[in-house]
Amino acid sequence: MSSFFDTKIDYLRGVGPQKAVLFNKELSIFTYGELIQHYPFRYEDRTQFFKIKDINEDLEHVQVVAKIRSIETIGEGNRKRLVAHIFDETGEMELTWFKGIQWVTKKLIIGVPFVFFGKPNKYGRKFSIAHPEMEPVTAVQEEKSFFQPVYPTTEKLRAKFLDSKGISKIMEGLVQVAYPQIQETMPEDILQRFSLISKKEAVKQIHFPDNPEILKRARFRLKFEEFFFVQLRLLKLKLTRTEKSKGQILNQTELLTKFYKEHLPFQLTEAQKRVVREAFADMKSGKQMNRLIQGDVGSGKTMVAFICILIAISSGAQACLMAPTEILANQHHEGLKEYAGLMGLNIALLTGSTKKSARKVIHETLLSGELHIIIGTHALLEDVVQFKNLGLAIVDEQHRFGVAQRAKLWAKNEQFIPHVLVMTATPIPRTLAMTLYGDLDISVIDEMPAGRKPIQTVHRYDKDRLKVFGFMRKQIQMGRQIYVVYPLIEESATLDLKNLMDGFESISRAFPEYPVSIVNGNMKPADKDFEMQRFVKGETKIMVATTVIEVGVNVPNASVMVVENAERFGLSQLHQLRGRVGRGADQSYCILMTKYELSKDSRVRLETMVRTNNGFEIADVDLKLRGPGDLMGTQQSGLADLLIADLSKDAPILTMARDAAQLLLQDDPDLSLPNHAMVLRQIKNQKKHAINWSRIS
Ligand code: ADP
Ligand code: MG
């Protein structure tokens, strides 16, 4: 943007230095550019009026014309409130104020028609609006605008008359002076191809739309633009990377063939085969692989990883597999040790608790090339860990590792950056994945191994606990094992731990005949491991734990997952937890325990879990409930900064914008054509802003 948009808002009409400070602090708005991008989040159609009898609770807001019948104050001190009883020819309702009572009382005139506006809530049989906006009828009739913009604001701003209306007034002045200064940011051919209106028009119309149709086009244009530049940046990154990063050619398959012939314990699913092919194509391409494997819990990612490891070793390279927790690294090691042994390969485990002497041996044999496969935690990232020739680096459960950590892995081979496979069990919608991991290629294992019985999921209230215990007992009698999981959230860790211990005691009391394990995050790794192993061996029948078991643990005989305080878990977390059971041949169950009162969102989460086992479907609901801001990876991708586009709702626009960006880069990979100058400028501008942001926060 030109310097005009860098102008500080301090002397903008209607702002002034004092209000400017508030804008700075409350909304991080400093400049004209930032203010003009403070878009309305909705519009109120002030041309529509409701009759009182037509009001219902589903309405976000209503506007009624009504007269005041009577006014009263109820309660004392802090709880004092003002209630006005109003009526029209169809019915009666109430208005309530908890603050500013004196001031409001003066404004209310009995018997005179007012326009009232606000969110209706039902109390008993009557509707009530708390703190409505109000105006005498005449003033409203002069209102010209079709749609009134509603701006995000805060309590502190409101206190200085910067409510939505106040901001709207300032915005009117700003849009007027800014309009001639707004420059187009997208190339003409893209505007035409996707029928986009000009930037100028879009900005003006998004604030003060002439009609609903043009508003729609303005929003479309601005969303498109946002996605377009994010995609362009990611695609450009990927382009540079594939150009720059040569990959070691890993194209030998002797070990693989032998493994397939002699040791493969089951038929691969079609999805596993496809993903292996995709990864193999990368590994032998001469370009560096950066591939994400998405697959639901239990879809068999580990086997795919092992097969890729075999390809790497056949071709004379080494491989490493990094897991986010010690338990998980351990389990991978246990699982793969067997296969590696059958294939005559050397494998070792390196974690924080590996003894010094063992560590030394590992370091030496990695460097000499004697050790083929190393499994481990973050410990693998340490500088002392050096390879003879690391060809393939696999990262499990990627959301726990940052981009910076991945980069550390890359540095482990000086000649060639190792091929990187990232495995995640957090399914996300494909469009979103393309964006979040825009710099990775994506493979999806969208099929479960044959013979799996879908897990049966139920929701039970705390009062049903005895019945649940009864069910648990029956399952144990049938030879099964059971997880009971409690939430553990840092902010309430002490309480949560107490909760866990109470639960452990009540279960121990309820099942005196069975040994019960307990594992929590405060235990030493060795103790945790000891308890885990007891459970894995079947010595204990019930495992009471916090979410430490969330990731990766594999006990095929465990067929029941009881989640306590299930309302406190997010959807994807619940899905991950449920994935801990259903790994053997038996019918498995997931029991979600909650208290009786639940928020609407909690109910949706629980219903979704009961309805479906499909991770992608669950991810969709999750995205809708939480919005993309909370999703892992959004921060790094720049998507967290989206001003107007919404990843959960605007996927079609995202796809179009990605296509547009792809086309542009095909024509002009360096963006060096004169008619793309504005695009280049815009990208550079974005970078500049990104830096500013990080400095501020
Ligand atoms: P995840 O994708 O969650 O990491 P795992 O790799 O741990 O899943 O696999 C889950 C279980 O399924 C393991 O016990 C594994 O041996 C088994 N498994 C993997 N692939 C197949 C297959 N094609 N057929 C049968 N069982 C399989
Ligand atoms: Mg796994």
Overview of this structure, please?
With 697 residues, the protein is of the alpha/beta class. It has 25 helices and 22 strands. Strands 6-7-4-3-2-5-8 form a 7-stranded mixed β-sheet. The protein has a 7-stranded parallel β-sheet with strand order 12-13-11-14-15-10-16, with helices on both faces. A 6-stranded parallel β-sheet has the order 17-22-21-18-20-19, sandwiched between helices. Strand 3 (81-88) and strand 4 form a beta hairpin. Helix 9 packs across helix 24 (651-667) and helix 21 (600-611) packs antiparallel against helix 22. The two termini are 22 Å apart. The chain binds adenosine-5'-diphosphate (ADP) and magnesium ion. Adenosine-5'-diphosphate is lined by residues 266-269, 272, 295, 297-303, 425, 449, 554, 583. Adenosine-5'-diphosphate binds next to helix 12.
Tally of separate helices? 25
Q: What value does the Rg take, in angstroms? A: 30 Å
SSE class:
alpha/beta
Instruction: Please give the domain count.
Output: 3
Query: Which hetero compounds are present in the coordinates?
Result: adenosine-5'-diphosphate, magnesium ion
How far apart, in Å, are the first and last alpha carbons? Answer: 22 Å
Strand ordering within the main sheet? 6-7-4-3-2-5-8
Shape: globular
Low-confidence stretches: 632-637, 689-697
- Strand composition percent: 15-25%
**Number of extended strands:** 22
Protein name: ATP-dependent DNA helicase RecG
Family: Belongs to the helicase family. RecG subfamily.
GO molecular function: 3'-5' DNA helicase activity; ATP binding; DNA binding; hydrolase activity
Organism: Aquiflexum gelatinilyticum
